[in-house]
Specification:
243 residues, mainly alpha, 11 helices
């Protein structure tokens, strides 16, 4: 007797049911979930709280989204739709990749929870927006002759995800302090310098950082840090191109 295969645990592999409550749509559920995630983070999101925000019971939500994991897949794909894709006819792979990475970072900072769930949001990469993003990068890197385009793309995204995750965590800490970023840094820096006092190289580094942050906009400093690292990554990838 043949056994029934287990269903694939992803919203993208399951046919959507016909809604029994027309006023409550999947789109409305996802929009509200993203608003909750942006405001309070992943830990604060639950189907019960989401239902209360939508004036609907959890049972009504489950008719549209089977689990919280599926909800996260949908939320991740929805915000990926905000990322500006490089033009299909790009003639400069570096500038096109830079724009894509910059847009990815901007989207992540607008939605600080995003980077932290990319590796745990089920099969989110099957979503239409993520597919479109992946396809555009694949076309870009293939058209410019990268011998292993998928690995080149993974390298860029790994950098962008790692930097954006760290930056989003930092900005979350700043936001919780109730201070501006500049004020928070000014208050933190003396403690950092004291902690580094017994380490000569670090002490010098923090002294430079203290002078730099006192004289510059923290946003510009973070921008410069991101783009410096991205340029290094792209310099390395350029060596892989056939000459």
């Amino acid at each position: 007797m043949a056994t029934k295969a287990n269903p694939i645990p992803s919203v993208w592999a399951r046919r959507q049911r016909e809604p029994e409550q027309p006023a409550l749509s999947r789109e409305a559920i996802v929009r509200e979930a993203i608003a909750m995630l942006d405001a309070d983070g992943v830990e604060a999101l639950s189907m019960r709280k989401l239902g209360a925000r939508l004036n609907a019971g959890a049972t009504s939500l489950y008719r549209h989204v089977a689990t919280k994991d599926e909800l996260m897949e949908l939320a991740v794909d929805e915000v990926f739709g905000e990322i500006v894709l490089p033009p299909a006819d790009s003639t400069d792979w570096r500038s096109a990749t830079t724009r894509a990475a910059q847009s990815f970072r901007t989207t992540t900072l607008n939605h600080p929870w995003l980077a932290s769930v990319l590796g745990t949001a089920g099969l989110a990469y099957l979503g239409p927006n993520l597919m479109a993003f992946s396809e555009r990068l694949a076309v870009l890197f293939t058209s410019f002759g990268f011998p292993e385009p998928s690995r080149a793309i993974d390298t860029v995204l790994t950098y962008a995800i790692g930097m954006s995750t760290t930056e989003a965590a930092w900005l979350t800490t700043v936001a919780r302090s109730g201070e501006t970023e500049a004020a928070f840094i000014a208050r933190l820096m003396p403690a950092a310098q004291e902690a580094a006092a017994g380490h000569a190289v670090l002490a010098d580094s923090y002294a430079v950082a203290a002078a730099t942050t006192a004289a510059n906009d923290p946003v510009q400093i973070r921008d410069a840090k991101f783009f410096y690292g991205l340029e290094v990554v792209l310099d390395g990838l350029a060596l892989r191109l056939p000459h």
